[in-house]
C-alpha cells in the first residue's frame, strides 16, 4: 500500500515547486534530501545577519512574467542589479563588456571609437578560421579584451590553456555599446530579502521532509512507498552509472568572516589574471545592501570534477551529450518516475527555467 502520492527526491527548487503545487492539489508528498538542509544549490545560511549563498552567487533574473509573479508569492525581492567588477592586476573594469569597460581600457568616449578599436584589433589578428578558443576569442573581441578579461579567467575555469581548448566553447562574447553595467538583459531581477531558504521552506509546507536521507538507500528499505517518484538527482546515478559517468565541472568555495564592514564594495568581483588562483570573490552582504559591522566573503575556485565531487556545471560536449541521450532514453521508459531539474536533465538551468519546468511538469501531471 502506498503511503504517499509522490516521493520527491531532492529539496532543490524543482522538487520544492513540484511539492508545493502537488500539495495544493491535495496530494501527499514525502521529500528525501541527501544534504543536511533543504534548498539544493540555492540554499542560503544566515551568518551574523548576512545571508550567505553557500553554493555560489544566486541572482534571480527572468523575462518570464508567470515565473516572476510565481516566485513573488513566496518572497519580497529587492532592487539588486548584478554589476560585476573584473580585477586584472591593478586594473579595475566593469562587466559585462560595455562602454565603461572600453573607456577604461582605451581612454575612448564614444561607441564609434570603441567599435573602431575592436574592429582594428580583430583585423590585425587576421584570423579566418579559429582553431582554438584563443583564436576564436581574439577574432570576436580583439587582443586587449581577450588578454585582460577572457584569457586568465577561462584558463582557470577549465584548468588548461585557451590554446588547448576548442573554439566552440565561446560562440559569442556579447559587447554592449552603452554605458550599462547591468549584467543581465532580463526584464526582472533581484534578490529575495531574507535569502532563498525561506522560499523553499514555504514551498515545502504541508509535506514531510527527511534530511540526510539518500534515495538509493531509502528505497531499498521502503519500496512502493509512493505511487510516483519525482527524481531531481543525477541521471546517471539513477541508472547505477550502468552506461558510464556523465562529466561535470566542479567548484570549491572558501568562506571567511572578516571583522571589517566592507571588503570589496561590490557583491561579485571576478579575478581575470591567471596568477590569482580564485576566479571570483563574493561579498554576500552587498546582495541585500547590508549595513552589518562585519562581512562574509567567499572565494570561488574551479575544481576538476571526479566521480563523487559536487557536480556544478554539466559538460555538454558531444561525448557527454551522446551518453546523456542514452540515459534519457532509459528515463523515457521509466513509468511512474518524473525526472526534473538540472541534475536529472544534465543541463545548466537558471532558477527561472527550473521554476518554469516544474510548473510545466505539474501541468502535464494534472492535465491543467
Ligand atoms: P538542486 O541541485 O538545487 O537540487 C537537487 C537536490 O537533490 C539537492 O539538494 C541534492 O542534495 C538532492 N539530491 C540529489 N541526489 C539525491 C539523492 N540520491 N537522494 C536525496 N537527495 C538527493 N541560477 C540563476 O538563476 N541565477 C544565478 O545567479 C545562479 N547562480 C548559480 C551559481 C552556481 C555556482 C551554479 C552551479 C548555479 C547557479 N544557478 C543560478 C543555477 C541554480 O543553482 C539552479 O537553477 C537551481 O539550483 C537548480 O535547482 P534543482 O532543483 O534543479 O537542483
From TrEMBL:
<keyword id="KW-0274">FAD</keyword>
<dbReference type="Pfam" id="PF03275">
    <property type="entry name" value="GLF"/>
</dbReference>
<feature type="domain" description="UDP-galactopyranose mutase C-terminal">
    <location>
        <begin position="148"/>
        <end position="348"/>
    </location>
</feature>
<dbReference type="Pfam" id="PF13450">
    <property type="entry name" value="NAD_binding_8"/>
</dbReference>
<dbReference type="InterPro" id="IPR015899">
    <property type="entry name" value="UDP-GalPyranose_mutase_C"/>
</dbReference>
<protein>
    <submittedName>
        <fullName>UDP-galactopyranose mutase</fullName>
    </submittedName>
</protein>
<dbReference type="InterPro" id="IPR004379">
    <property type="entry name" value="UDP-GALP_mutase"/>
</dbReference>
<dbReference type="GO" id="GO:0005829">
    <property type="term" value="C:cytosol"/>
</dbReference>
<keyword id="KW-0285">Flavoprotein</keyword>
<comment type="similarity">
    <text>Belongs to the UDP-galactopyranose/dTDP-fucopyranose mutase family.</text>
</comment>
<dbReference type="GO" id="GO:0008767">
    <property type="term" value="F:UDP-galactopyranose mutase activity"/>
</dbReference>
<dbReference type="GO" id="GO:0050660">
    <property type="term" value="F:flavin adenine dinucleotide binding"/>
</dbReference>
<keyword id="KW-0413">Isomerase</keyword>
